[in-house]
Amino acid sequence: MDAQEMLPVASPYLRLLKDRINLTQVPLSERGSRLMLFRVGDTLSFRLAERWFKLDNQLSSYRRRRPILSEFTITTETGEPLALEQSTWPHAVALGTAAGVFRLTFVDSETILIALPAGRYGLRFTTTLDSARSDRRGGVLRLNGDIRRNVAYTTNARLLENEVANVEANDQHVRLVVESDGTHALLLNMTPRLGFNRSIPNVEATFAAAEKRWHDWFAAAPPVREDLLPHYLYAWWVMRAGLISTRFYTTREAMTPSKIHYVGVWQWDAFFHALAYRHVEMNLARDQIRIVLDHQRADGMIPDAIHDEGVVTHLTFPVEADVTKPPLLAWTAWKLYEIDHDAEFLDEIYEPVVRWNRWWLEENDRDNNGLCEYGHPFSSGLDDSPLWDAGMPVEATDLNSYLVMQCDALARMAEVLGLHEDVTKWSARAEGFTQRMIESMWDPEAGLFWSTRAGEPIKIKTPFSLFPLFTGRLPRDIAARLVAALTDESSFWTRYP
Fold it and tell me: Measuring CA to CA, which residue among 106, 198, 120 is closest to residue 154?
């Protein structure tokens, strides 16, 4: 059956992404949702994008944790499993079977709507929950205790059979036989809350609304060359599907690097995500900055990462030290301001950013030479750079380049806010950092900047040796030498760098 027959899709953007979501490595998800829909053979499963270390006391166990709902199988009326023919779009999945086409989409971030074809057939699935009760429209299943998991299944089709069996301690097996006239649906609501969404909406209106949400998102993105459009739209799909809802320490809707493998908000990832979101939804961009400031320590430090259950500010491996990320917050905020000229947002964050800068200047210049050091390698964002091999702390060229950029951005922010003394102060500090880098880190013979440890240069070529170019403050002769090093085809400018 043709995909358009299985699920008519009007949006040209969504049609360009047909079958890019393969449901094996790439699940179907929705903005702000913790649910991810996967396919395993001819069954479906739903996993949750959440860490919850205390559930099994292993740091990365969430990557291997069992789905909340698994083995979702479409069967004949007598229980024989049916093969699935799959088509996907950003907003929906269509599954062709011998019993007809089953269509799935999100109603909201916790609720999946499955449009049922006309006929009689079976549906079955397993949940990892410890209590269950059925009712005349479906049933409710719960996991009780400190970590709540709740699932409700509801249908407006005629229920011919509705059985819930406790297979093992935390496994509930649900088996349904339904009769539909083709206008009915099955609603799956998976939530940590006690209350459920069991109200079945109009099926076609729900699919149309889901398509419109995604179409409007893609339409808001800046234009791009036509030959790049499919890959470009897929990147924007990732940027929307990767957003997770607020929960506990996750104080704002925020982008996580991967709902499967990296569930959380990493500080400088959040800044780069904000740079993308400024083109489609400015308040979402601002919230990527606000969420890290929500957890700023009293001394001004900003955490490395934020998870539902806490923040990361200190690690004991590979060295024991506070851990954060490079000071790019003010630079990012200014990039947002360049688009919308919202002085109120600059005013909102100015003081916290000043405290953040002060933490770098006061707590991370251990030798009092006016340049700052990383105390933990992960703070750099390049966890395994050879620059850290001899130990920490390291007075890094990238860090001090970022601090120049941060001070310059603070000066621009202060000018908008009418803080004239601060303009002078931050501009002077940016120039001071630049001059000290030239005095302590510039190697005119090599034509590169070297990071230092214990006052000695670490003469290992890395991209960090070029980072002072970012400042825009270097003398012309030094900038020219760095450009020459960057474009050296035997070093940095190879065919495959």
Answer: 198
